[in-house]
């Protein structure tokens, strides 16, 4: 039986707080209570065996002494020493037998050799065998007890019979019982430690799953909601600048302001979700259908409708790819276009998808943004987690992501995703292929730069 945190919670739920508190008080002090019980019960038995005649090196002198061969005052002093002082010393040694076992064993050897008292030796051997794992020292103490018992039996008439019973009941029995109890205690302790470790691991796994789900929710919110709101803000800003009348410009400005406030609140929510997660990004895939490369034409069309000059091209042999690679490539293009629309409005953006034999390369590069005019709207507020989330996605796909500026002020995001050799079953729809626009984005990636 053991007492752990899980058992404590179950007991509190079943019996309430009062009985559990009393049980815990007793469980924490059970060994000390047992020591006092053993010390009190051993006192009369020690005194009785100290006065037992016929065994021990001093038994030949104690019997005539007790029969009246000495003054009465001396007899009272000796009897008090044998029946009070020595039993009290044995009881005190029993109270500290788990911290000072040598005191009890030394006192047991003296009483066994000179008075033939086996009680302290039996208790000492049992205590040492059940509480300590030093088997060499246990064997040494056992040999000393056997030697002391053999010396005490020299003065008896029936040495063989007394020695046999002493070896059986005074040595073998307490040793066997003590070793069994000690082994059982170690086994229970190991099981208790294992149960507590498994319980802690279970809580850690649950907490890790919660954190991974929070990270996944934050990533999906950024990829989907922030992308849509950013596009809405950009379209409203363009409408505000080119509005044919004041009423339309006022409404467009209100939409743009509301969208910026929504992006700010979304950034706070994403910060709370990511701060409470461990950033592992190992959550399960969402159950809703996720966009793949076949959806790139729709994504590029939306940004062109919003006024962005997007040039899309592809190379290599388009073919079905693993679902994870297609989803990751789509998110890379989506996040790069969102960043280009936010930080470089009006700049030309080139999207390049290369289907290699062993990898899939996605590169999105924008030219330097044109100078802003006085009436141009400010770029919408970003969440600050876009490239960090992309890096998590690409790492999960065992790919490499680089992002950084060009010397002329442009910016490029480039991801290389490894692909399995040979044809693979399609992970979704057939990957789409962009329209044959002229112009190809840079094939080489810039040196890694700060995330934006």
Automatic annotation (TrEMBL):
<feature type="domain" description="Signal transduction histidine kinase subgroup 3 dimerisation and phosphoacceptor">
    <location>
        <begin position="213"/>
        <end position="276"/>
    </location>
</feature>
<dbReference type="GO" id="GO:0016301">
    <property type="term" value="F:kinase activity"/>
</dbReference>
<feature type="transmembrane region" description="Helical">
    <location>
        <begin position="162"/>
        <end position="182"/>
    </location>
</feature>
<dbReference type="InterPro" id="IPR011712">
    <property type="entry name" value="Sig_transdc_His_kin_sub3_dim/P"/>
</dbReference>
<feature type="transmembrane region" description="Helical">
    <location>
        <begin position="72"/>
        <end position="96"/>
    </location>
</feature>
<feature type="transmembrane region" description="Helical">
    <location>
        <begin position="138"/>
        <end position="155"/>
    </location>
</feature>
<keyword id="KW-0812">Transmembrane</keyword>
<protein>
    <recommendedName>
        <fullName>histidine kinase</fullName>
        <ecNumber>2.7.13.3</ecNumber>
    </recommendedName>
</protein>
<feature type="region of interest" description="Disordered">
    <location>
        <begin position="364"/>
        <end position="383"/>
    </location>
</feature>
<keyword id="KW-0067">ATP-binding</keyword>
<feature type="transmembrane region" description="Helical">
    <location>
        <begin position="103"/>
        <end position="126"/>
    </location>
</feature>
<feature type="compositionally biased region" description="Pro residues">
    <location>
        <begin position="367"/>
        <end position="380"/>
    </location>
</feature>
<feature type="transmembrane region" description="Helical">
    <location>
        <begin position="33"/>
        <end position="52"/>
    </location>
</feature>
<keyword id="KW-0902">Two-component regulatory system</keyword>
<dbReference type="InterPro" id="IPR036890">
    <property type="entry name" value="HATPase_C_sf"/>
</dbReference>
<feature type="region of interest" description="Disordered">
    <location>
        <begin position="411"/>
        <end position="452"/>
    </location>
</feature>
<keyword id="KW-0597">Phosphoprotein</keyword>
<keyword id="KW-0547">Nucleotide-binding</keyword>
<dbReference type="InterPro" id="IPR050482">
    <property type="entry name" value="Sensor_HK_TwoCompSys"/>
</dbReference>
<keyword id="KW-0472">Membrane</keyword>
<dbReference type="Pfam" id="PF07730">
    <property type="entry name" value="HisKA_3"/>
</dbReference>
<keyword id="KW-0808">Transferase</keyword>
<keyword id="KW-0418">Kinase</keyword>
<keyword id="KW-1133">Transmembrane helix</keyword>
């Amino acid at each position: 039986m053991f007492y752990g945190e899980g058992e404590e919670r179950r007991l509190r739920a079943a019996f309430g707080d009062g009985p559990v508190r009393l049980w815990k008080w007793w469980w924490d002090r059970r060994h000390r209570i047992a020591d006092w019980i053993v010390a009190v019960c051993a006192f009369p038995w020690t005194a009785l065996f100290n006065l037992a005649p016929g065994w021990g090196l001093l038994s030949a002198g104690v019997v005539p002494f007790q029969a009246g061969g000495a003054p009465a005052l001396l007899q009272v002093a000796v009897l008090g020493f044998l029946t009070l002082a020595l039993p009290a010393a044995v009881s005190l040694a029993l109270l500290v037998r788990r911290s000072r076992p040598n005191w009890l064993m030394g006192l047991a050897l003296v009483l066994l050799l000179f008075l033939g008292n086996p009680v302290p030796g039996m208790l000492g051997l049992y205590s040492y065998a059940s509480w300590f794992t030093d088997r060499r020292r246990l064997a040494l103490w056992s040999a000393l007890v056997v030697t002391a018992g053999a010396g005490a039996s020299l003065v008896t008439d029936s040495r063989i019979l007394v020695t046999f019973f002493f070896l059986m009941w005074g040595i073998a029995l307490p040793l066997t019982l003590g070793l069994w109890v000690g082994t059982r205690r170690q086994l229970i302790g190991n099981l208790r430690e294992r149960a507590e470790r498994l319980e802690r691991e279970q809580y850690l796994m649950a907490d890790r799953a919660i954190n991974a789900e929070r990270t996944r929710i934050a990533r999906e919110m950024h990829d989907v909601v922030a992308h849509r709101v950013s596009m809405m803000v950009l379209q409203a800003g363009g409408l505000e600048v080119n509005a044919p009348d004041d009423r339309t410009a006022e409404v467009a400005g209100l939409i743009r302001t509301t969208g910026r406030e929504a992006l700010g609140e979304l950034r706070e929510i994403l910060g709370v979700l990511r701060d409470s997660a461990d950033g592992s990004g190992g959550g399960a895939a969402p159950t809703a259908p996720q966009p793949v490369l076949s959806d790139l034409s729709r994504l590029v069309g939306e940004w062109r409708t919003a006024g962005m000059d997007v040039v899309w091209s592809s190379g290599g042999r388009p073919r079905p790819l693993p679902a994870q690679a297609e989803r990751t490539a789509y998110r890379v293009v989506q996040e790069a276009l969102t960043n280009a629309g936010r930080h470089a409005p009006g700049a030309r953006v080139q999207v390049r998808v290369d289907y290699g034999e062993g990898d899939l390369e996605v590169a999105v590069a924008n030219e330097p943004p044109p100078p802003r005019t006085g009436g141009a709207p400010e770029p919408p507020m970003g969440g600050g987690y876009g490239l960090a989330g992309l890096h998590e996605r690409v790492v999960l796909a065992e790919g490499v992501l680089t992002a950084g500026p060009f010397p002329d002020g442009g910016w490029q995001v480039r991801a290389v995703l490894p692909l399995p050799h040979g044809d693979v079953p399609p992970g979704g729809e057939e990957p789409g292929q962009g329209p044959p626009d002229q112009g190809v984005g840079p094939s080489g990636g810039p040196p890694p730069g700060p995330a934006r």
